[in-house]
Amino acid sequence: MGVEVKVEGLTKSFGSQNIWRDVSLTLPAGEVNALLGPSGTGKSVFLKTLIGLLHPEQGSVIIDGTDITECSAKELYEIRKLFGVLFQDGALFGSMSLFDNIAFPLREHTKKKEDEIRRIVLEKMELVGLAGAEAKLPGEISGGMRKRAGLARALVLDPEIILCDEPDSGLDPVRTAYISQLLIDINAEIDATILIVTHNINIARTIPDNIGMLFRKELVMFGPREQLLTSEQPVVKQFLAGDRFGPIGMSEEKDEAIAAQEAAMQAAGISGGGTQDDFSEIIAQVQPNPGVPVRKAAIRHRANVLEMLPTLPANAQAAIRASIAEEDARAAESPESVATLVALANTDFSTQAGIDAAMASADTQVVERPTEVLTKAPVADAFVKSPAADDTQTQPIDTSAIETAVNKSDGQGSNQA
Ligand SMILES: Nc1ncnc2c1ncn2[C@@H]1O[C@H](COP(=O)(O)OP(=O)(O)O)[C@@H](O)[C@H]1O
Ligand SMILES: [Mg+2]
C-alpha cells in the first residue's frame, strides 16, 4: 500500500516573495488526490517541496515517518525512491529511445541485469499502451505518448507515491480521459498514493478521492471530492466554472472597484465566459477498467469519509450520501464491470472487522492481468503535435539530476497555464 504524506504548517517563499503559507493536509495512504489552483499559485512548487527538491522555511513534510524537511541527504535519497514523478512534459531525454528513457531509473538506481530491466520496461510500456514504440525518440511521438512514456518511467521503480504535474497539459480531452483512466487503473493495481496537480475540471470532478485548492497563498480546502465540488466559497465556484467574474483575476486578486463593475455586468446578464454547469451535482467517479483489481483505496476512502462525515458541511454530507447511494445502485446494475463498486456495496462499514474483511478479500481476489484491457488505449496517436501547439516544454530535461531539472524548468515558464 502507498504511504501517507502528512504536510503540516508548510510555508514557502523565494526571497521576499511568499508563494504559500501554513499549508496543512494529509494525502491518505493509497488514495487519489488532486490539487487545483490558478496558474502561478505554486502547485508545482508544492510538488517539488514534497520530494525535497525545494526547501520550505517552515513546517514539515512527513513521509513514512520521516520529516523530509530536516532529514539527512542520505535519508532523503532513500525517501525519494518511494516517489514516481510525472513532470509536465514527461521530461524525457530527447536523444534516447523510449526504451532507454524508461529503463533509465532502473539502470541508475538498481543493480538489475539487462534482461530483468527489459522485462520491467516492456511490462510498463504495455501498461501505458506504448507496446511497440520502444525504439521511438521523444521528438517523433505526440504529446500524449510522451506523457504516457513519462508515466511508464515514473512506474519502473514501483513507487509508493506518484506525483503528476498537470498530466492533461497539451492533451486533447480524449487523450486526457485516457491518461486519467490509466491513473485510476494504476492506483487499483499498485495501490500507490497519487497526487495530481491540474487545472482540468473534468479530472477534478471524476478522478480523485480528495481535492484541495490553492488560492491567495493558502490552501482553501482539502477534503473528499464532494466537499470541494459542493463548496459555496466564491473562489472555488469561480474556478470550477471557469468564469472571469469572481475573486480570481487575470494576474491576481481583484480590487473592489472591479468587483463592483463585474457584479453590475453580471446583473445585466453579460456572460463571464464560464460554464453554466452545476458542479454541486456530483458525477460518478471513474472506475477501474474491467479485469483490473478492486481499488482498495476506494474501500479505505469510504471508511475515512464515513468517519469524518459528521464534521463536514451539510451540503457535502448530502452529496456524499448521494454518491454512495448511486455507486451502490451501479454495483447492482452491472456487477461484472464494476468490481470496486461491488466490493464497496458488499462491505460492512459499521465495524473495523467488516472493513478489514473487505480489504482482505480485495487482496486475495484473483484477477487476470489487465494489460489486455489497457492496451486498448490509443497506441499510435495519429497526430504529432507541433511544438507551437504544445504548451509543454520542448527541451528535454535531465532527470538523472532532478535538481537540474528543477532549476531548468523554473526558468522556462513552469508557471504558465
Ligand atoms: N526556483 C524558483 N525561484 C524563484 N521563484 C520561483 C521558483 N520556482 C517557482 N517560482 C515562482 O513561484 C510561483 C509559483 O510557481 P509554480 O509553482 O510554477 O505555479 P503553478 O504550478 O501553480 O502554476 C511563480 O511566481 C514562480 O515564478
Ligand atoms: Mg505548474
> What does the largest sheet look like?
6 strands, mixed
CATH class of the domain at 5-224 and 370-411: Alpha Beta
Low-confidence stretches: 368-417
Residue fraction in strands = 5-15%
Number of strands: 10
CATH architecture of the domain at 5-224 and 370-411: 3-Layer(aba) Sandwich
Strand order of the largest sheet: 6-7-8-3-9-10
The chain-level mean pLDDT equals: 83
CATH topology of the domain at 5-224 and 370-411: Rossmann fold
- Summarize the amount of helix as a percent range: 40-55%
Overall geometric form: globular
Write a structural description.
The protein is of the alpha/beta class and 417 residues long. It has a domain of 262 residues: 3-Layer(aba) Sandwich (Rossmann fold), CATH 3.40.50. 41% of the residues lie in helices and 15% in strands. The chain has 16 helices and 10 strands. The chain has a 6-stranded mixed sheet with strand order 6-7-8-3-9-10. Strands 2-1-4-5 form a 4-stranded antiparallel sheet, covered by helices on one side. A hairpin with a 2-residue loop joins strand 1 and strand 2. The protein is globular and about 70 Å long. The two termini are 33 Å apart. The C terminus is likely disordered. Bound molecules: adenosine-5'-diphosphate (ADP) and magnesium ion.
